[in-house]
Design goal:
The complex is a heterodimer of chains A (about 170) and B (about 425). Chain A is an all-alpha fold and about 170 residues long. Chain A has helices spanning about 1-25, 25-45, 50-75, 90-110, 130-140, 140-160. Chain A is about 75% helix and about 0% strand. Chain A is globular. Classes of the chains: A mainly alpha (about 170), B mainly alpha (about 425).
Amino acid sequence: MGEQFFFYIFAAITVVAILLMIINNNPIASAMCLVFAFFALSALYVLLHAPFVAIMQVLVYAGAIMVLFVFVIMMLRLRPEDLVVDRWNAKNLLLGGIGVFFVVVVIQVLRHIPLLAFQPVDPHFGSPEEVGRLIFGKYMIPFELISVTLLVALVGVVVLGKKEKS
Amino acid sequence: MLTIILKILIPFLIIFNIIPLLIWLERKGCAYIQDRPGPNRASIFGLRLGGVLHALADVVKLMTKEDITPTHVSRPYYTMAPFMALTVACITFAVIPFGEPLVIDGAPFYLQAAHLDVGILYILAMSSLGVFGVMLAGWSANNKYALLGGLRSSAQMCSYEISMGLALLSVVLMGGSLDLNILSLNQTANPLYWNFIRMPLACLIFVTAAFAETNRLPFDLPEGESEIVGYHVEYSSMKFAMFFMAEYAHMIIASALIVLLFFGGWQVPFLPTSLLRENAEMGLFILIMGNGILFMLLGLFLVSKFKKGKYGDRRDFEVLVLGVPLSIVGLGLALLALLHGAFDLGALGSQIFAAFVQFSVFLGKVLFCCWFFIWVRWTLPRFRYDQVMHLGWKIMVPLGMVNLLVYSVALLWV
């Protein structure tokens, strides 16, 4: 009973925070709403018995990546005229309609998935040892490939961001 | 339910009571290092108490100062930033264990507010969030210098988190778990097995990174008050007090971490927990008797310093006001120990006694480490910002990696 209560609260916080992030005009406010959403998401991970992933979410995503985002937004020094406000027009109504259609499709699909019997996970399910075993055992090659991709992205950003010496 | 509330309240109260003590220690400590007496004027009814009341005077001043909110700031972030800084410092205290887990009815009762399997990662996550408070403070003030100060400070904090994590990794490798209880247990009660001897380089890197994380001298430039404008330039009174308190709270957390990871945590030197629990009755007798005798001696020493006419006003009686109650309390304690005879504690009582001793030892070590922070602050000169960045990226990160490599190799092949 307690678990369901917490799930509903954290899911509601996540959805509301993400909606605020999308709707908000000010980029810093969007970034802070996203950080808040990551906290609630991390709580959902804890409810799914994955404590390691939950802490990693806060440590890496909310603590490092969002810091970088907020850094960049602060350096941009946007003035109020640069923040364009989206108004009600035909294009926006069409896009909104497509969004509502997709939500309806997803709800219908989720309602008709047959529920199989769930097997209980063993007590060490989300612990660092198990995650480590998976990363460095079964999924070693994808892990290394992801690391190489990140390195390529990092080098590419530095190269692309350099000022041309004219 | 009651235990949960107590476990939440006690770390919070510990922080908020150590902060005034640290403020006093800092001002008196820096004064004696600089060969001057320090603040000794604030008094209640003529009692000066060596300047302790200056902390109270500080609090009153900061609360009654006018709380100015300039019109050009971004109001929500301006108000939120000091709260974020202080909150992050306080919640980190949730996973710090104060003693070995008690065994009540076969189930372990952890002496920490939250028993997480991933304790250390939680602390790292919360220090990453501390950067937000500083950055938002610098940005929301709508002041170019504050923004630059905030960016400097957050860049410094981000850089030193890496070396902190690398040093911590070697501790975790040798300890075998991310749980802080197990890491403290692993360093047995023998001080020769504590981590500052088993991995001295990691200890040095971690302590230096902790200095940089808490923005404490010698890495003080982002908030260097006398040299350059920092990120809290637009803050006044209560919000500034929150930043001030957040800095001391971060210092307490860093000290607690250093003590837990490298100096044996709550382990009493040479007295393992089993020994403490078995000899709890005798230990309690020795504790009460020893404290009684100590208080009596201290009280009598203070009373002997009484010389009427030394100052000419009510300061003469200060030694009496402190000395007489101390000697009476000491006498009472010694008589209690003598007359009560043997204590009958039982299993739970002896565990509580052992936990109490370990808690006191832990607090003593944390206070010593805080004193070390203060000592270094008033001894070393400040680093320049490019020197800070050079040290963080070009020296500490390679050193941390080499350290990790050495310990991994040692673990594999030895």
